[in-house]
C-alpha cells in the first residue's frame, strides 16, 4: 500500500511562552502514514463545532486531540501496536489500567464515569497537566507518583472507554482549563497567528484517506472501520473486484476518484461526489468477473480525494491474480 498526502493546511510556527511546557507528539507513529488526527479541540463556546483552522474536524465540546490509527498496516505493525509517549517531563498523577478493550469498535459498553478508559494523567508543574485516554488493556506501564521524561513509553493505543475507533485522546489543561496545543492562547485567526505548544510544529490536515482496499464484494462499514490487516493474497479467481476507500473529514462537493488498473490497462473507474460533511465515511465500486476470467498479472487500485479541484490525498493497494 502506498499513500501520498498532496496538500496540507495550517500554521507551521511553534512558539512556547516562558514557563509553558513544550510537548512532543504523544504517539509513536508517523502522521500522514501510520496515523492521522481525526479530531481537534472544539474552539466554539456555543453549540457549533470549530477547529483550530476554522474547519469542522471536531465535534461540539471536544476537549482534546485525537491521534487515530491509519489502515493498510502490515501484519507486524498491526500486532506490535503503537506506543503512547509522555508529551513532556512530569509526575504521574493518576492511572487506570483495568478496562478491557472493545472486541469491536461498535460494541456498546457501559463506561459511565470511566469514559476515558485506560489512561494516564501527568502533572507538569505550574498548573499544567496532560491526559492520555483509550489506552490498551493492561498496557499502562507507569504508576502514580512516578517521574517520567518526555517520550517515555506510558503504554499503548487501545480501544477502551467511550470510543468507536482506535485512537489516543490527548488533552492539555492549565489550572483545570482546556488548552488547545495547536493554539495555546486560542486567539489565532484560523491558519495564522497560531502559537503551538508542540516542540515540532504539526500542520492542520482537514481531510484525508484512512485506508483503501480490494474485496470480492462491498464490505460492511463496520468491517472497514475496524481497520483490518492489509491482505491482498487471492486464492483463485474472485467473483468480483471491488475497490473501497475509507476517509475522514469530508466536505460537500469533495470528489473521490477510484480506479483499478490491471495487466491490460484500466479495468474500471468512477468518480463520486461527496454530498455532506462527515467525520468518517466509506465508498466502494466494482465489477463482476468477466466470463473469460480476470487476466493474470499485477493490479493496482487507487483512490484519490479532491477538494476544490485540487488532489489532497491519495492511497493505493497492489495485488496479483493468477
From TrEMBL:
<keyword id="KW-0732">Signal</keyword>
<dbReference type="Pfam" id="PF01551">
    <property type="entry name" value="Peptidase_M23"/>
</dbReference>
<dbReference type="InterPro" id="IPR016047">
    <property type="entry name" value="M23ase_b-sheet_dom"/>
</dbReference>
<dbReference type="InterPro" id="IPR050570">
    <property type="entry name" value="Cell_wall_metabolism_enzyme"/>
</dbReference>
<protein>
    <submittedName>
        <fullName>Putative peptidase</fullName>
    </submittedName>
</protein>
<feature type="signal peptide">
    <location>
        <begin position="1"/>
        <end position="17"/>
    </location>
</feature>
<dbReference type="InterPro" id="IPR011055">
    <property type="entry name" value="Dup_hybrid_motif"/>
</dbReference>
<feature type="domain" description="M23ase beta-sheet core">
    <location>
        <begin position="61"/>
        <end position="181"/>
    </location>
</feature>
<dbReference type="GO" id="GO:0004222">
    <property type="term" value="F:metalloendopeptidase activity"/>
</dbReference>
